[in-house]
Amino acid sequence: MTATIAAVRTRRLSARMPRPWVPDEPHLHLVIVEVEDSDGLVGTGFSWTPTIGAAAVQAMIDTEIAPFAVGRTTDPQALWPALWLRLHEAGGAGITTIALAGLDTALWDLAGQRAALPLASLLGEQRASVPVYGSGVNLHYPLDELVAQASRWVASGYDTVKIKVGGPSLAVDIERVGAVREAIGPDRTLLIDANQRWTLEQASTALDALGRFDLGWIEEPLRAEDTRGYRALRERTGVPIALGENIHTLQRFQDIVDAGYADVLQPNVIRVGGITPFLEIASFISTESSASLAPHLLIDLSGQLALAVGAETAVEDVEEASFSSLGLVTSPSPVEIVDARARLRENARPGLGLDFVSTGIGPTTSASLISEES
Questions:
Q1: Residue 140 falls in the annotated catalytic set
Q2: Residue-wise pLDDT tens digits, 263-291
Q3: Which among 26, 18, 95 has a CA at the least distance from the CA of 58?
């Protein structure tokens, strides 16, 4: 008899970042989700909110997802569509998909444990390693610190680096991008990320000025929802356009491909709703789009996914932002970086391979199947 979900438990974890992404929001937050099946096996997954929203995500899991899931199948690919259909009334994306990821990742962890395989092996590894690029959330860094960070990536052997742009002064952006280009040399790829800070006119002006630094891409120059703006920008610049970390559904990725303005698509495995929809989105990108796939952040998980998707894709290593660096896990990450490439660690644990620390913040809650004897 196929196992069913017997209980869903959640708790929140928070870690102070050694290199805060936002100076006035120095903490990163996780909602840890444990799923116990009817055989007593427990899978552990997570949702991720780098600044705000952890309490809302936990509430969505506790009050809507868990009561619906208890008693149903532990097969994540069978359960996800039904859950998304139920939650869609509360919003087709955002908190709903981020919360869905907590349960979905826990169910994939459970599946890996049942098969006694790490996630990458469970999905079917198609390569032994993938390239890694150095990434920094560094718009607030002084110039000398920014250059020092870029130099560390060079010393680590990274062929590609990414920095933030979109400060209050285009002249300062030009100075910073120029300094990093000089630090990494002409033969490495330089990516820039505006994090949705520009208007169409600002983006056009900035890319006219910054294009001379031979940019690999401009990431999120406009708000993620600004389809009209992206269409216009595509006509104005030859710099490749990357976006997707704030796109939450397969349907929206399909719309972007149909509109033809993105060269690189960057789904975030948590924001799209977990491993189940990520695999569907990745398959769509590789088979039905000319755009490249570049998973966003979370190398502990996206590194494993990158080993199993169709086309080789680089993964993003944000300096001192892995779960191990943040002290959120008690054992080494299942993904290790060797010679600027990410690979599955030898003897990686089954499932996600993440042993989260026990100390958290906020309430711990659970929903359980109530037996007839209770």
A1: no
A2: 999 999 999 999 999 999 999 999 989 99
A3: 95
Of 29, 162, 164, 248, the catalytic one is 164
Task: Select which of 29, 162, 248, 296 is catalytic.
Answer: 296
Q: In terms of Cα–Cα distance, which of 298, 330, 311 is closest to 101?
A: 298
Cβ atoms of 364 and 372 within 8 Å: the answer is no
The answer to whether the beta carbons of residues 234 and 245 sit under 8 Å apart is no
Q: What is the pLDDT of residue 56?
A: 95
296 carries an active-site annotation: yes
Read off the pTM. 0.93
> Tens digit of pLDDT for each residue in 168-214?
899 999 999 999 999 999 999 999 999 999 999 999 999 999 999 99
Least Cα distance to 230 among 198, 254, 208, 206 occurs for 198
Residue with token string 């933030």 = 164
d(Cα 31, Cα 57) in Å, to the nearest integer?
8
Rg (C-alpha) for the chain, rounded Å, is 21
Which tokens in the block code for residue 47?
A: 């949702």
Q: What are phi and psi of 295, to 5 degrees?
A: -55, 145
